[in-house]
Amino acid sequence: MASTPYTPRVAIVTGAAQGIGLSIVRQLAQDGIDIAVNDLPSKLDKIHEVVDEIRSSGRKCIAVPADISSEEQVKNMVETTARELGSVDIMVANAGIAAAMSTLLETTTENFDAVYAVNIRGTFLCFQQAAKQMIKEGHGGRLIGASSAAGKEVLLNLTAYSASKFAIRGLTQSAAKELGSYGITANAYAPGLILTPLLGETTGDKDSVDEAVKTVKKVMGIPDDAGVADPEVVADFVSYICKPSSRFITGQTISVDGGLRFS
């Protein structure tokens, strides 16, 4: 059991240099939470831009560049956050990649392994190392993962991605069952079509936003009238699930998709 009440003070957000991660960082900072901003070391300039923005708002914020598929780097990221910001209360394992669209028969083992290394191994390591730190600190915490509408019902031409997002749901349930006695909840969000750079990864990054959305809908078998939203809709959900009042919600993967999937 947690020895002290859960109070959201410090969050680590992975994949936070852009897109959904950046929106989550901004929202949590508005909520009065200090932030450790993670992304790949190759994006260090963007990471520092985010850190400077959050610091200018009056919150404490540090850069913790790391490849989340590396156990040693994730461990160091968590330890650095605890040392410099005082604790680890929230882990938002947001980082993920989408390989080029391909069918089951066309997907290479290299692409499959690359997607799994980030999306599921990375989320596992973030959950594991953050949970160890939370248990050590004795105040409970929040583990939050990034699933997808494709992790509730597969989308066409996304074999590796869909499989990895289904796996995150299982990982989230395992964490919730095993860590509840420590005052730690585990949940995930399952976005639908969100306007982020990830759309560009699947379309070759050459299309306009409108064209990218059309391409994604057509190739993935998504209805033409399916809604599209900005990443702030996901950040709003994360904001709530980080609050003490969300303590009775755990093991859930919540759809944030405009009604694309009812499950």
From TrEMBL:
GO molecular function list: oxidoreductase activity
Pfam family for this entry, one: adh_short_C2
Residues passing through the membrane, by range: none
PROSITE patterns on file: ADH_SHORT
Alphabetically ordered keywords of this record: NADP, Oxidoreductase
Family statement drawn from the similarity comment of this UniProt entry: Belongs to the short-chain dehydrogenases/reductases (SDR) family.
Protein name in UniProt: NAD-binding protein
Protein source organism: Schizopora paradoxa
